[in-house]
Amino acid sequence: MKKRILICLIVIGLGYMVGYYMKENNKEEKYYFIQEGIYKDEEVFESNISNIKNKLLKYKDNKIYIYAGITKEKKIAEKIINAYKNKNQKMKIEEIYMKNEELKINIEQFDLLAKKSSSEEELLKIEEFVIANYAEIMKKEE
């Protein structure tokens, strides 16, 4: 009888530990998306956008969201905002929560490069790769 109770307690403890581990590894991560704009109308969007070649477009709630960068670190997001500000482009930071381990690892690697970038042009080029990488990962998930 005591042996069965002990085995049950061990099994319950192991189940709790496995559940806790799975929960911790499956949580959403915070990302800072550099938002260029939100458009409600396709015609307004088409007449106002200058260079969407290296941008991320997301369609949500009958609106078009345009993003020019993604990072996991607020300081890098602010650095990107300043780089665009120096080019007379107004951007803002939007926090978005997602869970994707491949995206997390890739963006963390790009963030290391962004920290070491020596010029604004280099930083913005890195963000073009981040956007392309994000689009590729999301395409795989579909």
Task: Outline the structure in words.
The protein has 142 residues and is of the alpha+beta class. It has five helices and four strands. It has helices at 2-25, 42-48, 74-85, 101-116, 120-141; strands at 29-39, 56-60, 63-71, 92-98. It has a four-stranded antiparallel β-sheet with strand order 2-3-1-4. Strand 2 and strand 3 (63-71) form a beta hairpin. Helix 3 (74-85) packs across helix 5 and helix 4 packs antiparallel against helix 5. The radius of gyration is 21 Å and the shape is elongated. The mean pLDDT is 84.
Major sheet characteristics = 4 strands, antiparallel
Q: What's the count of strands? A: 4
Mean pLDDT comes to: 84
Estimate what percentage of residues fall within beta strands: 15-25%
**Principal-axes shape call:** elongated
Order the strands across the largest sheet as they lie in space: 2-3-1-4
N-to-C order of helices and strands: HEHEEHEHH
Residue share in helix: 55-70%
Return residue spans where pLDDT drops below 50 for at least 5 consecutive residues. Answer: none
What is the CA-based Rg, rounded? 21 Å
Alpha plus pi helix count? 5
Ends apart, CA distance between termini: 52 Å
Sheet/helix structural class = alpha+beta
